[in-house]
Amino acid sequence: MAVPAPPAPVRAHRGTILLEDAIVVSVAQHAGEQCVMRVHCPPIAARAEPGCFVHLRCAPHLPMRRPMSVMRVSARDGWLDMLFKVHGQGTAALAARQEGERLSVLGPIGRPFKRAGYRTRPLLIGGGVGIPPMIFLAEHLRACGEKLTPLVLMGSEVPFPFRARPSRIMVEGLPANVIAAMPLLDDWGIASRLSSLAGHAGCFHGYVTDLARHYLDSAGAARDEIEIFACGPTPMLRAVAALARDYSVPAEISLEEYMACAVGGCAGCTVRVQTPAGPAMKRVCVDGPVFDSAQVVFPD
């Protein structure tokens, strides 16, 4: 008599992802063909955490969804914000959406950044469209009740999707002429600094990871109080992982990857990681997108 196979293990992400017809609240256009879209989707907004993402049906004639990082949420009012850059047919269709239209949203998806137990000086690094999760995480850090002094560093080679202004918050260990900040974070009492190779006034001229190296160099023994959280393109995340190794600082990174299903079924977004059992392929959508930087094997 055949022995029944043991039941399949329950996947942590099953039962946590919702499908909702959200309502477009607004689409704000910014320089560099960037947009901030706000949608009203209370059940998803109530569950979203920093580092998670949503999967959008951009238009009825486009069957493939697009993954979008969550930038801000209001669980109370039921909305979430996403920042994206028009890059192709799907994002162009999103940018053309009008207030009041319905938008199919699948989410929240993915393993988020850690929720508590932070070191006292979190260092958040966002590059390009990797900036939104850093804003979400900064807002969470502000509200979590721990005594923290976060610093948010953002890099972009297109104009930032906000009007930068000189920061009112001093940050030791950074070049004195690097004073450009994101007004929203400044108003929250969270220090931020900007970097770019495009010559924007008040910005650090160079890569955002070079600016982070300035900060880590100056920290000395206080590096024991620092941990890194980052999201951005793969070359930036590879540089962040190198920073974490060089300075013996822990780092969580949110990977960007093309996705088809985004719910773990197609395995089209796998990344190679080191595990206690040896190398393994993990799905960015549901095993991530947040990973320990020391575990990720970056392609050559």
Would you identify the CATH H-level superfamily of the largest domain?
Answer: Nucleotide-binding domain of ferredoxin-NADP reductase (FNR) module
The unreliable regions are: 1-10
Helix coverage percent: 10-25%
End-to-end separation: 51 Å
Judged by helices, strands and strand pairing, the structural class is alpha/beta
Compute the number of helices: 6
Record field, number of beta strands:
18
What's the CATH topology name of the largest domain?
Answer: Rossmann fold
- For the largest sheet, list the strands in their spatial order: 4-3-7-1-2-6-5
Shape assignment:
globular
CATH-scheme architecture of the largest domain: 3-Layer(aba) Sandwich
| Main sheet attributes: strand count, strand direction, barrel closure | 7 strands, antiparallel
By oligomeric state, this entry counts as single chain
Rg for CA atoms: 19 Å
